[in-house]
Write a structure and sequence with these properties.
homodimer; alpha+beta; nine-stranded antiparallel sheet; four-stranded parallel sheet; 29% helix
Chain lengths: 381, 381
């Protein structure tokens, strides 16, 4: 039987874009997802419907694929290790996935390898929180479930007085992390291949609306000094090298008010903060992963034009068929790229797509990004 | 039955790239091609295997598609007219295809509409050639079969003495066209939508190797004066407006030694001379056609970075499985985009793919394009 070049565990939008960026190399993809009609399944050569925790489905995907990767962390890392032992190639390695799946292991890894990160303490049960916080001296902190959190779920920003008042949001083991007074939030996409070659993408900055104090869009390049940029790149490279990571990794970073760069967390896959690389950089994060999976040389990560990225999120108060209210206006702006993820229905805050914005310079990028943000609105179809 | 958004007559590389550029809008495509495994068939949602002249297959594609387009001129334009009369939407209109399929009608159209073009005379049989040439006063000329020529086939560059000596290459009706002493060959991709809005892409120049006198690569922007650029744009717009053309058209132009712009010929579809727009321009020719077919506004055709395009052609002297000899080296150059067309085997001069090259300025583009050309070589796999 001739196999598919790449098998993707997960059939979401990250898988969809991975396939899109592999097409000009004629790469064939197989996918596995619990849904029959998932964003990637429409364009994969072969789709298996099955849970990402179902070992029979994972085995089936491995059997028909030359190499496996995953576009989501929520799969059975232990079983992937078994598949690896049977000779299947899995990139990034399941051992890395196991660390990343558990925020306690992730934080301990940083500490063991002298990677700067926010101070933290581990707690098993609600009963342990107060003593742990008092001992560490944290007053403001982020409580994060060790396992299973995503997209803001499983995370709470808290004050020690909440704990004193008995308002503990999670029963399961948690990382309690001292709140970083943060001047910038950055992300660096790191590509590392089997030969140990590393290419970092220029840092991306989460742009905040100073009035609403909300993340509004991602911008590349980040508005940071050369020395911060260099520090961020070194730390991002270091953490992936220490992990002996092969693949694409998003390293999320804080820059604190003292100008120190701290690792927040890592994703072992293409990431929301790298969507803009499709149009904004010579080699996209997705193409880069295809290259790594097929053992081709890494591509240049340089900037073609400054870029920004705005998420297209499901509108409040409705579920069902949807449309971009101002699609016509958006399509008439130069350097605006609408990406829709082929999701059947909208739900509040569901990621339905994103928009990349290119501009020849950063000043006009800001103007254009703000105009695009105002026009980006999902309404019932 | 829910229909596919777009039906493509032809399953070649132009269809493949049309589909690739429609994916981020979640556009569904159906294709028709004589081959079961054609470049576009791998990624179309539904593929019909059938001749492009088989009315039953064309009818079947029309029945399952909201709108039809063609990625090759060699199909049954008369039957497409019938489908149009039955209410199917076909873009560009079959009436335009009929004109373009016949070089005599094409040349007469230019003359009737005062579009500057090389002087010509029509001949039906070999017996007519000498008198026609003597009457027109042509000594050097291009003989072109009225119907069926493509990719250099059906065209001969000749001298009247060849005819005197009885060396007439074609028996069928021909256009004999006075040879233009040409200083540049340009191409302009013109997009025109149902509302009559027009967007021209910046002119592309065929770059010649001054030693071998061969077209080596395409370059955008063309190295021409503003006044030539303006003239070329006006003529290209004029001819598509006179045709009342809706769709994407490549208008190939000569600039003669007097600096006059002449129309050479038109293709009613995305074109080889527009491949570079995928990376080099804000909106690619393929995305632009998707927009036109779905009645969305035209996209901006501005340049992101100067670009060049090199064809990947089958190597001489072999047929069969193939590879790019220097793929590794090519993949390590920033701004080099390899596009492979998923063709099963190489044949001499077969178009197997192309490479787009981006660079921040024209000088470094030239250097990079020359390096890429030297590295672009197809060898047996």
């Amino acid at each position: 039987m001739s196999k598919y070049d790449i098998g993707i565990i997960g059939g979401g939008q990250l898988g969809k874009m991975l396939i899109e960026e592999g097409l000009r190399y004629n790469v064939s993809f197989a996918t596995l997802d619990a849904e029959l009609n998932s964003p990637a399944s429409y364009i994969s050569y072969h789709h298996i419907q099955g849970s990402l925790y179902d070992t029979a489905s994972l085995q089936q995907l491995a059997a028909i694929s030359n190499v496996l990767t995953y576009e989501i962390e929520f799969t059975d890392a232990h079983y992937l290790e078994q598949l690896q032992q049977q000779g299947h190639i899995i990139i990034p390695a399941p051992q890395i996935l196991k660390i990343i799946q558990n925020k306690a292991l992730q934080k301990q890894f940083y500490t063991q390898h002298h990677i700067p990160t926010a101070q933290f303490v581990l707690v098993n049960k609600p009963h342990d929180w107060l003593a742990a916080l008092q001992q560490s001296g944290f007053t403001q902190f982020a409580a994060k479930l060790c396992q299973g959190g995503y997209d803001g779920k499983g995370v709470a920003l808290m004050h020690i007085s909440d704990v004193v008042n008995g308002a503990i949001p999670f029963d399961e083991p948690c990382v309690l992390e001292q709140l970083v007074q943060c001047s910038k939030e950055l992300s660096i996409i790191v590509a590392r291949n089997a030969a140990g070659h590393v290419q970092c993408y220029p840092a991306v900055e989460m742009a905040f609306d100073p009035i609403a104090n909300l993340v509004t869009y991602l911008q590349c390049p980040a508005d940071i000094s050369e020395s911060i940029a260099e520090q961020a790149k070194q730390i991002a490279t270091q953490v992936i090298e220490r992990l002996n990571g092969i693949g694409i990794f998003a390293v999320e970073l804080f820059v604190n008010e003292q100008g120190q760069v701290l690792v927040n967390e890592i994703a072992p896959r293409p990431h929301n903060s790298g969507h803009h690389t499709i149009e904004g950089n010579y080699t996209s994060q997705y193409e880069q992963l295809v290259r790594i999976l097929l053992n081709k040389p890494l591509g240049d990560t340089g900037i073609v034009q400054p870029s920004a990225m705005v998420n297209i999120l499901g509108g409040q108060g409705f579920t069902g068929a949807y449309k971009l209210k101002h699609e016509k206006e958006l399509l008439q702006i130069a350097g605006v790229y609408i990406h829709l993820y082929h999701k059947a229905e909208s739900k509040p805050n569901r990621k339905l797509g994103h928009i990349t914005i290119l501009a020849p310079d950063v000043a006009s990028l800001h103007t254009k990004a703000k105009a695009v943000m105002q026009l980006t609105q999902i309404v019932p179809a």
